[in-house]
Amino acid sequence: MKLYSYFRSSASYRVRIALAIKGIAYDYQPIHLVKGEQRGDAFAALSADRLVPVLEVDGVPLAQSMAIIEYLEETHPQPPLLPAEPLARAQVRALAQTIACEIHPINNLRVLKYLSHELQVDDAAKNAWYRHWCRAGLEAFERQLAQLRASRGAATFCFGESPTLADCCLVPQIFNAQRFAVELSGLPLTMAAHEAAMALPAVQRAQPSACPDFEA
After folding, report:
1. CA angle 155, 100, 10 (to 5 degrees)
2. At the N or C end, where does the chain have fewer CB atoms within 10 A?
C-alpha cells in the first residue's frame, strides 16, 4: 500500500491513525498541499478530486478518508474500528460524520485559502470563521457524547473501551482546533476521549510530527 498524505491534512491523519491501529504497513508518499503539489499532473492521474489522502492498493487508487477507512475495516477487521452491532455502528458513524461532514468541509485548506485570496478576508476574520464553526461543531459532538453516555453508560473513548472510527476523526480535529486556538473548555467528554486516544502508541505513531514531511 502507498498512502499519499500531507502531514497537516486532518483527513490524511485519520487514515494514518486507522492504519497504525490496525498495524498495516504502507509507503508514505508526501504531497505538499501548500506548495500545490496536489495539482500536478502525476498526482492528478491518481486523484480525480486532487485531494489527499489517496491510498493506493495494488495500483488502484482509493480516495476519500472515510471510504478508505471503511475499506481497511472490511479487509483488515482486527482490531475493529466499528462495533459489531448495527445500531452501535450507526452511532459511531454519526459521531465520525459530525466531524468529517459538518466541521471539516467548511474549515479545510481550500476554504481558508478562498476566504483569503478570493474574498480578501484578513487573517483575523478568517481565523474567527474557523473558530466559530469548529467550536459549534465540537459542541454538537459533545452533546452527542452526552446522549450516548446517558443511554449506554460511561466510556473511555468516544464509544466504549476501544478506539473507533469516531476517535480516528476526533484526534485530527482537535489537533487543528489547537492550531487555530479554538476554545476547548466546557467539552469534558470530548477532551477526555481525545486524551485517551492520544495515550495510545498507535495514535502517537500517526501524529503529524512523526511524518516524514513534517515541518515545524
Report:
1. 95
2. C
Q: How far apart are alpha carbons 172 and 10 in whole angstroms? A: 5
pLDDT tens digits along 115-142:
999 999 999 999 999 999 999 999 999 9
3-class DSSP state of 56:
strand
* C-beta of residue 161 within 8 angstroms of C-beta of residue 197: no
Phi-psi region of 204 (alpha: psi -120 to 50; beta: other; left: phi over 0): alpha
- For CATH 1.20.1050.10, the residue range(s) in the chain are 86-202
pLDDT over 90 at 29, yes or no: yes
Q: How far is CA 122 from the centre of its chain?
A: 26
Tell me the whole-structure pTM to 2 decimals.
0.95
Q: What is the share, in percent, of the chain residues with pLDDT greater than 70?
A: 100
- Report the largest interatomic distance among the alpha carbons of the chain, rounded to a whole angstrom: 51
Q: How does DSSP assign 172-183, residue by residue? A: HHHHHHHHTT--
pLDDT score, position 182:
97
Q: Are 165 and 69 in contact (CB under 8 A)?
A: yes
The phi and psi torsions of 76 (rounded to 5 degrees) equal -135, 75
CATH superfamily, with its number, for domain 2-79: Glutaredoxin (3.40.30.10)
